[in-house]
Amino acid sequence: MTELFGFPLPLLLGQLVLGLVNGAFYAMLSLGLAVIFGLMDVVNFAHGAFFMMGAMLAWIGAQYFGLSYWAMLLLAPLALAAFGMVVERLMLRRLRGMDPIYGLLLTFGLTLLLEGLFRSFFGVAGQPYNPPPQLGGTLNLGFMFLPEYHAFAVLASIVLCVGTWALIERTRLGAYLRAGTENPALVQCFGINVPLLITATFGFGAALAGLAGVLAAPVIQVSPLMGSNLIITVFAIVVIGGMGSVVGAIVSGLALGLIEGLAKVVYAPISSTVVFILMALVLTVRPAGLFGRSR
Q: If you ran DSSP here, which 8-state letter would residue 131 be given?
């Protein structure tokens, strides 16, 4: 059997591929957090709850209304975008200009409320959600059989991450968003509705989390607790990449997935804590994060 550094090569490559699948979800969730923090300076602890709601809405749509995966891939993010805009307009806007800790406490309370609401109706047991029939096959990679849906989820996540980066960094709308957060009074003098832009930004970040939830639903069991199991890891990824850095969120999310996959081969017990080890190292060497800028 072919080996690399003393480990079977098929096992090593297989874990790296599975790590890339996890990394794709990490990148999407981290991206939404980075967008909201970078453009609004809000530490959105409810991001994990939005992720959970996206997956739960997909499951509810299939279970009770017979809606297809493809329909929920569109409808769930739209519903989360609308919900996020309402949250920003009625709650977070009142905290603008205050210490960011108040926004964190508000979104943490909102997380507990949303999780409790879904738990009261659906319990805590995980529910299976089947992938669409068009992606129900497997791909023979030579060293493993990879479900087609996993490959689709990775490609979709990468496309969405790159598209979001291009929207923020390479378009006029992105320039308005960045300018509106740095000097809102000046931007409003040019006739741009800055409060509406900020509300739309939070809605967009919530939609990204909801979309990640729908993409993750066929891969992990759908549960009201699925967001709380991920949000701490995602926060650590955002810190590693640099708070507010879109590129940092994408690169760090994908890299962490690969590192976790490698750790499961080298020393499995450390795979669940490697993100926090990396965070401690990065904060020691570069407190602003790998791609962040000191304020």
A: P
Per the listing, tokens 């490697």 go with: 274
Q: How far apart are CA 272 and CA 256, in angstroms?
A: 11
Distance CA 288, CA 292 (A): 5
The three-state secondary structure class of 54 is helix
Give me the residue spans of the domains in the chain.
3-285
Q: Residues with Cβ < 8 Å from 241, sequence gap 6 or more? A: 30, 34, 247, 248, 249, 250, 251, 252, 253, 289, 290, 291, 292
| pLDDT (tens digit per residue) in 17-28 | 999 999 999 999
Cα Rg of the chain (Å, integer): 19
- From residue 200, give the alpha-carbon distance in Å to each of 13, 15, 151, 181: 41, 38, 31, 13
pTM of the model: 0.92
* Residue whose tokens read 């939005």: 50
Using one digit for the tens of pLDDT, what is the confidence trace for 202-259? 999 999 999 999 999 999 889 999 988 788 899 999 999 988 788 999 999 999 999 9
The sign of the torsion formed by the CA atoms of 226, 159, 198, 239 equals positive
Alpha carbon distances (Å) from 220 to 21, 81, 241, 280, 292: 11, 23, 25, 28, 31
> Each residue of 168-202: b (16+ CB within 10 Å) or e?
beeeeebebbebbbeebeebeeeeeebeebbbbbb
| CB neighbours of residue 247 within 10 Å | 17
β-pair partners for 140: 145
CA–CA distance from 47 to each of 40, 95, 123, 127, 174 (Å)? 14, 18, 20, 21, 21
Instruction: Annotate 161-220 with DSSP letters as a single string.
Output: HHHHHHHHHHSHHHHHHHHHHH-HHHHHTTT--HHHHHHHHHHHHHHHHHHHHHHHTTTS
